Amino acid sequence: MKYVFNETKKYDAIAVGRACIDLNAVEYNRPMEDTMTFSKYVGGSPANIAIGMSKLGLNVGFIGKIPDDQHGRFITNYMKNVGVDTSEMIVDTEGHKTGLAFTEIKSPEECSILMYRDQVADLYLQPDEINEAYLKETKALVISGTALAQSPSREAILKAVQLAHKHDVTIVFELDYRPYTWKSTEETAVYYRLVAEQANIVIGTRDEFDMLENQAGGENDATVAALFAHTPDLIVIKHGVEGSYAYAKSGEVFRGKAYMTKVLKTFGAGDSYASAFLYALLKGETIETALKFGSASASIVVSKHSSSEAMPTVAEIEHLIAAQV
Amino acid sequence: MKYVFNETKKYDAIAVGRACIDLNAVEYNRPMEDTMTFSKYVGGSPANIAIGMSKLGLNVGFIGKIPDDQHGRFITNYMKNVGVDTSEMIVDTEGHKTGLAFTEIKSPEECSILMYRDQVADLYLQPDEINEAYLKETKALVISGTALAQSPSREAILKAVQLAHKHDVTIVFELDYRPYTWKSTEETAVYYRLVAEQANIVIGTRDEFDMLENQAGGENDATVAALFAHTPDLIVIKHGVEGSYAYAKSGEVFRGKAYMTKVLKTFGAGDSYASAFLYALLKGETIETALKFGSASASIVVSKHSSSEAMPTVAEIEHLIAAQV
Amino acid sequence: MKYVFNETKKYDAIAVGRACIDLNAVEYNRPMEDTMTFSKYVGGSPANIAIGMSKLGLNVGFIGKIPDDQHGRFITNYMKNVGVDTSEMIVDTEGHKTGLAFTEIKSPEECSILMYRDQVADLYLQPDEINEAYLKETKALVISGTALAQSPSREAILKAVQLAHKHDVTIVFELDYRPYTWKSTEETAVYYRLVAEQANIVIGTRDEFDMLENQAGGENDATVAALFAHTPDLIVIKHGVEGSYAYAKSGEVFRGKAYMTKVLKTFGAGDSYASAFLYALLKGETIETALKFGSASASIVVSKHSSSEAMPTVAEIEHLIAAQV
Amino acid sequence: MKYVFNETKKYDAIAVGRACIDLNAVEYNRPMEDTMTFSKYVGGSPANIAIGMSKLGLNVGFIGKIPDDQHGRFITNYMKNVGVDTSEMIVDTEGHKTGLAFTEIKSPEECSILMYRDQVADLYLQPDEINEAYLKETKALVISGTALAQSPSREAILKAVQLAHKHDVTIVFELDYRPYTWKSTEETAVYYRLVAEQANIVIGTRDEFDMLENQAGGENDATVAALFAHTPDLIVIKHGVEGSYAYAKSGEVFRGKAYMTKVLKTFGAGDSYASAFLYALLKGETIETALKFGSASASIVVSKHSSSEAMPTVAEIEHLIAAQV
Question: What superkingdom does the record give (chains A, B, C, D) (predicted)?
Fold first, then answer.
């Protein structure tokens, strides 16, 4: 089974939301207190997904907001160099900073992130900064849940959803739940449900769908039934090492397995999954193949030091899939 | 043509949102600088609508938030005395105050309001303060647009919309646009469109529908076509003294005329219109009759000193309708 | 003993800080819930003191900030009409409102105030709005403690203190403690001590001096000893019906008795005390006489309905003093 | 001429204010966009001064606030390891982060800092977190101006000043002006003047004293005359490569020259100057010698990569002084 996009559009995908800086521990397998050097990478879920899709060969654009400083310019330069269209990267004029993520890798199982997200530029994207003429030229609009965490970014995303509907753009909602910035789980659930009901494709972990439902221990069947009563027609629920499930509104269910790898850290798994899954779907592959691409890409990224720089090529993904049939 | 509600519910209508204090000029036909005495009334669009419907004989409830002070207690007492169920009136514990509206009546044509709306209690209603068991027991849920102006009241309303859908409650969205509190017209348009698309009945002036569309000079035909692509099936657009139009999804259009009166001030016209229009609809009257009820009630209230206390009885409305056939 | 001012100045006194609106219960001796009408007066401690001094015949100016609305214009007009120079009344351009005080008079012993002080205009007076050329032309600068409660009004007052020192202007600090707006008693104590140490005359109730010392049950002797180590040379400590004490740095102590009256409410006692006490001092009367003037003026105001409008004339004060020798 | 401290105290000096993280470019002599690796150091003016004094052999304490995270723990550990008493390092419980300074070194003449100072932990030090029993046990209290930039840190410093006066602790005010965080130069001037007038020793660059005076192009003679009218009795004004001047209230003026060095970057010059100048003063050296120590220490630090780790030993300073007689 394949997923049908509006093929008349210029861009394969446009991602919207945060583009930040990751500062990854150069000396790892220890607490961050003992790390004295950090490497700089572009980070942030939608930026990573855009970079990943671009490296796989898709025609990708990005809508975001960055400060007028060295970190902001680094982000735009890096994304441009990997082929992402950054013409809609808005430069903040109010002194907001780029978000930062210092990563701590104590062991492959014990990873954590020290976030700087207070008043960061990406959360100040305004609804009137969403360029309708640009947005309507894409097959898919990729939204990450974190962009809903605060105004005015929240309204910019809600406006992008309204415009995507108007112009027959497929909305992909990557739940991407991060506890910081949100005021309460109640607030999160309201907006997650609101946008999920209006999206076409929804992707998240089981825990993230629980957040959407404001409950613990939800069942996939109930989750997809509730969402299929609205706009969504493809829902991907990830269960970590147990693999992932894709549910089609037609009733079909597909299962993807996880690929084995030597894990360095867990960061970047979700973003690499989404970029390769969407790549395959947009290239006209079946949902089964797309699930393989997502899982394989995730396996590759968790074995490497960064989330963005480590995004694999099609050849690397296909090689891993072939190796672990 | 009649509008069908779910008749198995306990309440005819529950209104949600602000309940405030009006301080009306005792000495009027002058600038407020020269008014030395003010009369106190309950005010705020959804509170006025609830009071109006209750005085007309409906079984009405209210969900709101008031401070733990003399103004808050006055509001609850007053609403209870006119028959509104106030069991879901939440008492604020964080020091927020009741909103205030000082009214200035220079002449029937020159009315203005001096608002106190900074950090008012009603805008602090939380999503987890929406009682699902209560809300599901009403035929109609009446939402006023001002409650969307700020978090967390905004999320409380979005949650109420989600619960109303879940429990087959008819959502009535009174646009009730007030410029204060909103950060931009862009922001207003995003939420007005969002909620209007999910409501069943939408009521507003032509100017308010322009706000929803973030444009000036909109046409009714385009407005109703856009909304009928979503949930709404009845849309009322008011054109002041030229009367109002009700559009049904089935394609029928009904026109209501304005009734002549000796105008004292313009405040309260919209709230009295909504309460009598909904009364008639809920009582099983035709849409044509409901339009007459709305217009007649508005005419009565603009000839009197207050918005809430002046809400008419059924007999008064019927008398005016009969007098101006 | 007399207090010496710099007699070369144009104004007897300039007060700085809040000028607000009092809304006094027309129907009283009941809870405010049952009051349906309110009378409007100018209020706010420094405005009341300025009005009181002006009605007694002093040449008085005022530095403050009011909104560009009907309440703001009423305040300026009223103060101008009683003779206060309002040329330095700054008009706010950022949408801040006038503070409001709804007064509840349940009985002479049970009075309370329902305050509206969120983001009020007077707390937005900026340090660069203090006109040095104006301020240097006064014998006495009257500061009320509430103006220190929040930035930028706090910095405006600190700047006024620095300018007063520079130009040999006597600083009168009326502690005027109000719990709202302040974040903590610790914060209050820091600024009260800071300004009291730099003032020449400090006036307050025993409770207010306890606030300055961030403790309960302080003793007058310790209080004045601590302050006399710095700039102050005259300290007035009020003990309610037990009367008040004036301490001079020279070591002399004067006691003023309270005058009997038929009390209507307690509001306005402190402001009327300060205005008449300062009037007498500025007119070259002895400290003993000034204490009598302060107490008599307070007695007159608590027997009347308002705080500002009720400010007495010299003849009324002298009549009461003569009647209760 | 020597400066006399109260020799009965346990600590030579306690510094109060910010302790942060510097992230210094590993690859430098280029724009930060091209720097891919950063080294982590403790930073922040008062932390650097405390570290510098401790490395020189003084008995030093620190009062500050750090987050409960890896950066916070690194700071405390580092300071403890170099001998600073960190028993009064308060752990923030409200989610505030450590301030960050990314340094860009394009050339020795073109250095800049990308600051993260929004809602940082050090600015949330509360006045009731100043431990009087601890503070009274020091000869000198070192205050940096940046701690005055925002509440509640501002009030904590004002309280520390009041307690220092009470307990005969010498107040050293390092102006340390940084434009971020302050709302206006007017606001800065109010607090700089306020604290400078209450300090005993004031140290700053000529530009910083201009900030205190809210003017450009001030003259040292006027500056010191104005401050000597209040508490200060020793004022150090730095003029960059032209050297620095120390003014004593007694009328004596001392000049210190700048030492030549191979400059790597300009960061850390002021902090190393202050630590060595105060070291010499506290050790009973003459003011002339203290000026040499300050200048020599600054020369050493600007030739190295960090501000804190680079703080020199007494032997290094004495060696440089001897080498450039």
Answer: Bacteria
